[in-house]
Amino acid sequence: MDAPIVSVLMSVYNARADELRQAIESILNQTYKNFEFIIINDGSTNDTEDVILSYEDKRIRYVKNEVNLKIIASLNKGLKLCRGKYIARLDADDYSAPTRLEKQVQYMEEHPNVGGLGTFFKRLHTGEEIQLPTEPEDVNLLSRYVRGCISNPSGMIRRSVLVENNLEYDKNCLHAEDFKFWADLTYYCDLAVIPEVLTFIRSHEDGVSRSNKAWQDKMVAIVLLDNMIRDFECDKNYMYSILTKYVKSVPLTRKEFEDFKSHLENVITYVALRVNFPHNFIVKPYILGLLARISVEK
Predict the structure, then answer these.
(1) For residue 37, which phi and psi values (nearest 5 degrees)?
(2) 159 and 82 in contact (C-beta within 8 Å)?
(3) End of a domain among 76, 96, 116?
(4) In CATH, what number is assigned to the domain containing residue 89?
(5) Which range marks the domain in which residue 15 is found?
(6) Residue 190: inside a domain, yes or no?
(7) Residue 177 is assigned to a structural domain of this protein
(8) Alpha-carbon distance 9 to 40, whole Å?
């Protein structure tokens, strides 16, 4: 059987039935038809399996984890199962606009330098439409040093980039694995964003991101700071010793803090000059905002 052009990958754990149905049907009803839909039931204990099996569409490839592997292991398992030229991600409580795959495939075909592609998205709990940087240089720089520009449920990836560079979700970045994944991709390809709302995202009060926000924020900061040390001229051993203190929640000396601040200011100068208006204005407050997370000896 010929491989499909797109593999849609979704991992599910104890999803709400109505939201899971909306997610599944948003893919099955896409205007673009040449896809496989890999749905991994990650050891759910509710009616998730019944919901998934109620669909008889042959494009669905159902995978059942007998135990809950958690999101990172489950997604990495799924990445290895994908056969498509492109991999599209979706979470079980979100859904896609009918033309999402069609427009993303068209963009990727026309831009072979782009290995990762997101879209604008709408937060369903607030009604807010999130408009992001769209051009590759902006998206790459901001994703690596400032903040994520691709929302994982909107993402499409060129599978060859993953295969050729042995990339997957980092098991050491729990609750920030998405952020690390897209930042890592910037070292091997361009990222871009389609300036159209093609993804709709929910956020629950009891959701994983909200309940682990403090840890998630720290992991994101660690990823950003690691990239800044790795990529810029500095005394790397010294800077990594400072980062290690932050990781271990050990206060810095005042000199270490000032040295680290000086390094971040050099990064700001470099990035802000290369990011287009108006997104260049977020560079300084976001990067310097990382300093607020660092404790200093009194």
Answers:
(1) -125, 100
(2) yes
(3) 96
(4) 3.90.550.10
(5) 1-96
(6) no
(7) no
(8) 8
CA 48 to mean position of chain CA atoms: 24
| 157 in any annotated domain | no
Residue 130 lies in a domain: no
Could you give the C-alpha distances from 165 to 9, 29, 158, 188, 276, in angstroms and in order? 20, 33, 12, 8, 29
Contacts of 225 (CB under 8 A, 6+ apart): 243, 246, 290
Into how many domains does the chain fold? 2
* Cβ–Cβ under 8 Å, residues 87 and 156: yes
Q: Smallest Cα–Cα separation from 173: which of 70, 291, 283?
A: 70
What is the token pair recorded at 263? 């390094």
Question: What contacts 28, CB < 8 A, 6 or more positions away?
Answer: 37, 55, 57, 59, 60
* DSSP 3-state of 12: strand
Residue 172 CA to residue 174 CA, distance in Å, equals: 6
Domain stop point among 71, 96, 121: 96
In whole angstroms, give the CA distance from residue 226 to residue 223. 5
Q: List the pLDDT tens digit at each of the 298 positions of the chain.
A: 588 999 999 999 999 999 999 999 999 999 999 999 999 999 999 999 999 999 999 999 999 999 999 999 999 999 999 999 999 999 999 999 999 999 999 999 999 999 999 999 999 988 899 999 999 999 999 999 999 999 999 999 999 999 999 999 999 998 899 999 999 999 999 999 999 999 999 986 655 555 578 889 999 999 999 999 999 999 999 999 999 999 999 999 999 999 999 999 999 999 999 999 999 999 999 999 999 999 999 8
CA-CA distances (angstroms) from residue 137 to 39, 43, 129, 133?
A: 33, 40, 23, 9
SS3 146: coil
β-partners of residue 193 are 118
Given phi > 0 = left and psi -120 to 50 = alpha, else beta, which region is 40? beta
